[in-house]
């Protein structure tokens, strides 16, 4: 990694920053710590496709939220979408999860019982 730093520092001094190569080198220099972290830790994904797929329903639904009758209705829709996507991210069937929490919520008496119903606390 030291050779990369040395090469990059030398290249930044010799390449004009307004050229396409110069812009690319400046970008690489600004992202160097992230690149090194990615190279040193194989757990980091190379892209964010999973996150993009997870938020896709929100981007599609965004146009529909414009036609919500109220701001509270739009917020309720966003909260429900968030709960559904979080359930999916935690390996739960969203329909079954919602059925369960709608059945259990009326019997909840404290914050701990609400937290027990959160998707990451449900055992699959």
TrEMBL record:
Residue intervals of the Transposase IS66 central domain: 1-75
Residue ranges occupied by any Transposase IS66 C-terminal domain in the UniProt entry: 82-120
Highest taxon of the lineage: Bacteria
Name this polypeptide is given: Transposase
Pfam families: DDE_Tnp_IS66, DDE_Tnp_IS66_C
InterPro entries per record: IS66_C, Transposase-related, Transposase_IS66_central
């Amino acid at each position: 990694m030291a050779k990369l730093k040395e090469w990059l520092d030398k290249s930044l001094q010799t390449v004009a920053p307004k050229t396409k190569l110069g812009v690319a080198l400046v970008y690489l220099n600004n992202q160097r710590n992230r690149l090194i972290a990615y190279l040193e830790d194989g757990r980091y994904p190379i892209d964010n496709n999973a996150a993009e797929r997870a938020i896709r329903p929100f981007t599609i639904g965004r146009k529909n939220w414009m036609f919500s009758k109220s701001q509270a209705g739009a917020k309720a829709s966003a909260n429900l979408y968030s709960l559904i996507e979080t359930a999916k991210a935690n390996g739960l069937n969203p329909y079954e999860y919602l059925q369960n929490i709608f059945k259990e919520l009326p019997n909840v008496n404290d914050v701990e019982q609400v937290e027990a119903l959160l998707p990451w606390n449900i055992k699959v």
